[in-house]
Amino acid sequence: HSIEQTEITDLPARDSLNPGSLQLVSKFKNPSSSCSVDVSAVWWERAAAKEPCIITACEDVVSLWKPLDTLQWEKVHTWHFTEVPVLQIVPVPDVYNLICVALGNLEIREIRALLCSSGDESEKQVLLKSGNIKAVLGLTKRRLVSSIGTFCNQQVQIMTFAEDGGSKDEQLLMPPDETILAFAEVQGMQDALLGTTTVNNIVIWNLKTGQLLKKVHIDDSYQASVCHRAYSEMGLLFVVLSHPCAKESQVFGSPVFQLLVINPKTAQSVGMLLCCLPPGQTGRFLEGDVKDHIAAAVLTSGTIAVWDLLLGHCTAVLPPASDQSWSLVKWSGTDSHLLAGQKDGNVFIYRY
Amino acid sequence: CRTADLGPISLNWFEELSSEAPP
User: Fold this and answer.
1) How far apart are CA A336 and CA A237, in angstroms?
2) Nearest to A206 among B2, B6, B18 (CB)
3) pLDDT tens track for A257-275
4) Which of A163, A236, A331, B1 is placed for a possible disulfide with A291 were both Cys, Cβ 3.0 to 4.6 Å?
5) What distance in Å separates the CA atoms of residue A321 and residue A133, rounded to the nearest whole number?
6) Contact yes or no for B8 and A214 at CB 8 A
7) Beta-bridge partner residues of A2
8) How far apart, in Å, are the Cα atoms of B17 and each of A98, A138, A193, A258?
9) Which residue of A has its CA nearest to B3?
């Protein structure tokens, strides 16, 4: 076990847009020989106490870090992967002492659960799914949704974990006969699930019955749009999409996120808000995360940008730190912190 | 955003679509 030196500062991040909106809380380095691929914050129970822990993933190792009193981080568990590299962490809300990871080369080939045995606290991994996995997402109420296969040979499945991560239940959702790109939860409606497909449709499921309720075709202006989150309000669905393939236009610059309003009854939709980069910033969406009404993205320029979807504008820009581009951005699942990562294993934790 | 473009809105859309969709 190693204790990594962390630094605490009361200086706000170098943010010319809104100084102070992102404040550096702590940082640490994951000393690994392979490329850092993901970071996440989860609750983990040790000695009958639940702690907010950080999970870091490199291509060949996933580590769990617990907080020490001095805002340092101690590595307490490590899972090794020698055959298939790690692609992403898949947090499952409401489950303690379990984290899922997606493994593969370019595409996901396996989903594994990482946990510790109750007796000697030794690390274990359990294969949950294997195949041509196109999308996976952890949902509230200890559920994990995944889609395996493409077009007509697609299986969409919900797996439900016990509270301790143990025994699980499985249920199928009706497949849409279109390859699913991503899933998104609907805030305010726990039994609804959205997915975006390769032909620019948004599909809506009833998670209780497995029914496919509606397909909504969205504007073809941006190909391969990816859904991140949705909100159900007053009979309408407000959907946050990202546009990784969007070309920059002279009018709007580069659209990174879009808030779309859908009437699920009529399958009509209207664009409500286009989140573009502020003047002076360039780049396209590389990866991002949305929590509540705040959206964060890493741009191809190596900068992180944050938008408040209620205010309707960019609230913070975080330039590369220590002359190194950002490659990861995640909202903490345990508090209002932003986790920003670099390829060499540096993780910076900001308070928003 | 022009909600008129979206057609008639139902607060119970989830239940209504669930009763109409194939099981």
Assistant:
1) 24
2) B18
3) 999 999 999 999 999 999 9
4) A331
5) 34
6) no
7) none
8) 35, 25, 13, 25
9) A270
